[in-house]
Amino acid sequence: MHPVERSSIRLELRELAPDDVDAVFAIYGSAEATEHLSFEPRSRDQVEQIVTRSIAAATATPRTEYALAVIERETAELIGFVRLATDPHQQRGATMGFALRPASCGVGYGVETVKLLLDIAFEELEFHRVWGARSPLNTPSARTMEAAGMVEEGTIREHVFKAGKWRDSVVPPILDRGWNAAR
Ligand SMILES: CC(C)(COP(=O)(O)OP(=O)(O)OC[C@H]1O[C@@H](n2cnc3c(N)ncnc32)[C@H](O)[C@@H]1OP(=O)(O)O)[C@@H](O)C(=O)NCCC(=O)NCCS
């Protein structure tokens, strides 16, 4: 499906555009925003490649990746980056990722973003199961996914290799019927 778009009162999720590179770099290049993510801060060149690849992937058939910009409607600024990727090992399954620029954290945008992403995942893309994988130390992410209705299912041991060592991931998935019940 392309293009994908969804709005709430304060935010909009929309397809990425080439002009988004600097704003995405403010997130993926930030040591603070990526502290608990699976990768080190990206360079601007790497972010440009990610944005270019994501735009190309958006029109692939079948589409397996939905990388979207989070826009603050009042300012029209890109404040976040989210991603749904189909899970090759599970029918109608997808993994999700989300990150906001540090300056926009702490005012409820995290929960609003995840809810919008799950609306897209279940109502438009008709996934059955969506799951995230967070660092055990990522309390803001844990509370954000919990507030969006995701219930922690377990831990994948030594799931991510970062900064020279293996890290566990806590897995909070949500099923389509769970999302419908939460709505
Ligand atoms: C995770 C993230 C999206 C949360 O965004 P946010 O806009 O600050 O979150 P919200 O304001 O919607 O708050 C959601 C919950 O997190 C809690 N929270 C937010 N920041 C927190 C912090 N620094 N410490 C503890 N709890 C925090 C809020 O209190 C709220 O919990 P509650 O519903 O129990 O009150 C944001 O911190 C972020 O982008 N982090 C970097 C990327 C990342 O870690 N992504 C997740 C990968 S799994």
What is the CA-CA span between the terminal residues?
Answer: 23 Å
CATH topology of the domain at 6-132: Aminopeptidase
Mean pLDDT: 95
Helix fraction, binned, reads: 25-40%
Q: Architecture of the domain at 6-132 in CATH?
A: 3-Layer(aba) Sandwich
* CATH homologous superfamily descriptor of the domain at 6-132: Gcn5-related N-acetyltransferase (GNAT)
Rg, rounded, reads 15 Å
Q: How many alpha or pi helices?
A: 5
Beta fraction = 25-35%
List keywords for this structure.
183 residues, binds coenzyme A, alpha+beta, two-stranded antiparallel sheet, 30% strand, 9 strands, globular, Aminopeptidase
Please give the structural blueprint.
Layout: E1 6-7, E2 11-15, H1 21-28, H2 44-58, E3 65-72, E4 77-86, E5 93-100, H3 109-124, E6 129-131, H4 139-147, E7 154-162, E8 165-171, E9 173-175, H5 176-182
Parallel strand pairs: 5-6
Antiparallel strand pairs: 1-2, 2-3, 3-4, 4-5, 6-9, 7-8
The structure holds coenzyme A (COA).
Structure in words:
With 183 residues, this protein is α+β, with helices and mostly antiparallel strands. It has a domain at 6-132: Gcn5-related N-acetyltransferase (GNAT) (Aminopeptidase, 3-Layer(aba) Sandwich). The protein has five helices and nine strands, in the order E-E-H-H-E-E-E-H-E-H-E-E-E-H. The protein has helices at residues 21-28, 44-58, 109-124, 139-147, 176-182, and strands spanning 6-7, 11-15, 65-72, 77-86, 93-100, 129-131, 154-162, 165-171, 173-175. A seven-stranded mixed β-sheet has the order 1-2-3-4-5-6-9, with helices on both faces. The protein has a two-stranded antiparallel sheet with strand order 7-8. Strand 1 (6-7) and strand 2 form a beta hairpin. Helix 1 packs across helix 2 (44-58). The longest helix is centred in the middle third of the chain and has 16 residues, at 109-124. It is globular. The model has no long low-confidence stretch (mean pLDDT 95). Keywords: Acyltransferase, Transferase. It comes from Streptomyces albogriseolus. It is an enzyme of class 2 (transferase). Its EC number is 2.3.1.267. This is Ribosomal-protein-alanine N-acetyltransferase.
